[in-house]
Each structure stands twice: as structure tokens, then as C-alpha cells.
Amino acid sequence: HTRSIWVTGVRRVLFDLYIGYRVANRDWLRKSAVIALYVLTSLREQRLTKRALAKRMKVSPQQVTKIVKGSENLTLETISKVEQALDINIIDIESLTKLLKAKSRKKPDA
């Protein structure tokens, strides 16, 4: 009986830690999940396996598995590798550049 109380207490602590982690990292975890879904959709559309993607990216299949789980804090380098390997656009730099140019042309209110 004492062991089951201890196990329940440990589970509760681990659960609280997990929830705290999810809350603290909510923004990038959400973005990672969206990217994962986009990558999985692109793989399906292109009839590619995760192993084939790993080969194209020159990374391990385990790295691709982490990416498509949607809980990996992806670097710009990794995102760029995915974009090149699948010929997709995850971060739209061209649109950001246009937006910045448009903002720089606006004159500040005097």
C-alpha cells in the first residue's frame, strides 16, 4: 500500500513537471506541431518516407522522427534542410522582406 501511494505521488510530480514544461514552452511547441504536420503532409503528397527525407537532409532517421513528432525545438538550420529536401517553404522570408521594405517606406507620424 505504501508503495502505491509513493508511485502515485511520483506520477503526480512528473505530471506537474510535464504540464509546467508544456505551459512554459507553449508558443514554440505549437509552431513545432504545425511544422510537423506540414512536413508529414508534404511527405505523403510526394510519396516519400521519413527515411528518404533523412537521406535527403543528410541526418539520421531518428532526427526526422523527432521533427515529425512536433515537439522538437527546431533550429533555422534544420528548418532550412527540411525546406530544401522537400522543396517547400516553411518560413516565408520573401514575404517578410517585402513587409520590412513596405514598413521602411512609411514615413513616421510627425
Overview of this structure, please?
- By secondary structure, the chain is an all-alpha fold.
- The chain contains 6 helices and no strands.
- Helix 3 crosses helix 4.
What does this entry show, briefly?
The chain has 110 residues and is an all-alpha fold. The protein has helices spanning 2-24, 26-46, 50-57, 61-69, 76-86, 93-105.
**From the structure provided, what is the oligomeric state, counting identical versus distinct chains?**
single chain
Instruction: Give the amount of beta strand, in percent.
Output: under 5%
Compute the gyration radius: what is it? Answer: 20 Å
Largest sheet: none
Tally the helices: what do you get?
Answer: 6
Shape: flat
What is the residue-averaged pLDDT? 91
Determine the fraction of residues in helical runs and give it as a percent range: over 70%
Low-confidence stretches: none
What is the total tally of β strands?
0
Structural class, by secondary structure, is mainly alpha
Would you list the SSEs in sequence order as H and E?
A: HHHHHH
How far is the N terminus from the C terminus? 74 Å
Draw up the topology in text.
Elements: H1 2-24, H2 26-46, H3 50-57, H4 61-69, H5 76-86, H6 93-105
Index terms:
mainly alpha; 6 helices
